[in-house]
Automatic annotation (TrEMBL):
UniProt family annotation: Belongs to the bacterial sugar transferase family.
EC class name: transferase
Predominant subcellular localization, coarse grouping: membrane
Coiled coil: none
Keyword check for Secreted: no
Protein name, UniProt field: Sugar transferase
Chain ranges passing through the membrane: 52-73, 79-96, 117-136, 142-162, 317-337
PANTHER family: COLANIC BIOSYNTHESIS UDP-GLUCOSE LIPID CARRIER TRANSFERASE, SLL5057 PROTEIN
Amino acid sequence: MTLSTERGHDGGTAPAVLPVAPVGEPTQNPHAPRHVGTGGDPRSLLRRYQRLALVGDSGSALIAATTALLFRFGPEPPGSYLAITLGLPVLWLLVVGLQRGYEQRFLGTGPEEYRRIADAGLLMFAGIAVVSYALRSELARGYVFVAIPATLVLSLLARRQLRSWIYRLRRRGIGLQRVLVVGRADAVVSVIEKLDHEPQHGLVPVGACVPFVGVAVSHVHDVPVVGDPSRVLQAVDETGAHVVAVVSHPDMSGQALRRLSWALEERGVELIVSPGIIEVAGPRLSIRPVAGLSLLHLERPSASGGRMLGKTLLDKVAGLTMLALASPLFLAIGAAVRLTSTGPALYRQTRVGVDGKTFTMLKFRSMVADADAQRAALLASSDGNGVLFKMKDDPRVTRVGAFIRRFSLDELPQLINVVRGDMSLVGPRPPLPEEVAGYNDDAVRRLKVKPGVTGLWQVSGRSDLSWEESLRLDLRYTDNWSLALDLSILWRTLRAVTRGSGAY
């Protein structure tokens, strides 16, 4: 990360590059535009998203209710249920609205939008049950058990399509919110890097306010410095910022931050404050008001209890179901491996699981039988990430092995490990004992949960990731896992596997 600096008052010194931390020069994301495109006011885009969300939710409820009506009653339903079917979309919109599922700050970014839709589904299901009991007029269970889950699923799919649409626009520079970042230079650089790396969230840094120490700073990570933190309001006017992001600055707290929020409110500019806690998901953070203070409460990650029981049940039920459905594929792959190369169909390897316990992981053999003996001679040609040995054109891989690796079919036997309880469907990558022997304290934390057949590493690049990126993703999952996140990763895994990116 770099700062471009110039001497403040001797006029004529050429800009220079001053390293902030010895982490190497960052690579600019080609999809992260510095300037807002021709899509107009980002608020207009969010209002359009909001209207489309209303249409999508009402349409989802109508389709689901109609399907439930035909499923339960056939082509000649009772008049009362026809009225319920027509009223269900309105009820669904009201319930989602009560769960704040149409607030613009939750739309088009982060998991909160999906969570509020899911909460609305549970609330409507519980509400219908209570009202039916109170009025002693129980609705047909076949109708309810089709209409409500289908409404929820279709609404989530509609929101997913809306996300894809708005992400495409934002990657083209349309509808981006201009952000002024305020704080210490190192913290500002960190925020700018993260916003550049994920432009789909709709925030583009257009200016920075950093304190000057010794020399005046002209740019921070290619973003122009438009003053120090005392010039925030002038900088907002100069840059046309829609959002001010305050990060790690002692003078920007307490009463000063409160006055800044008042001044920005008058200008219609949003204020966001970074607490400095990285890789922690929103559900673990909450504000606890105490004695006039807004205290940020950080909940402990859940490693036991009801949520973990739900994850275990999901692993067992889904693992057994997938094993049964994939059994013909197991036989076909096993036969192909045995017929095209000498050696067993399955490859067994010792891996490290939760709390450091070792287990035998199963895979379809994709290499020649003596592949392990040949590894030492190939170490110099590794394309891995410095910790893992990987080769894009590994001579030990068989023809069948190359195909099943391309689509991750070699990993199907790990479903047996899932049913046994050694692994989970979703989790960190299962490490080798020699990898664990070299772990630092941070890396050891990834052993807090069961390793997974898939995970954030699988849907984010697989073998193309560096060790640091793989570790960061595994730690992010360990600290923030949830059933909703597991389902999201399983869905994204399907797309990653069909593309075959990063698989070798």
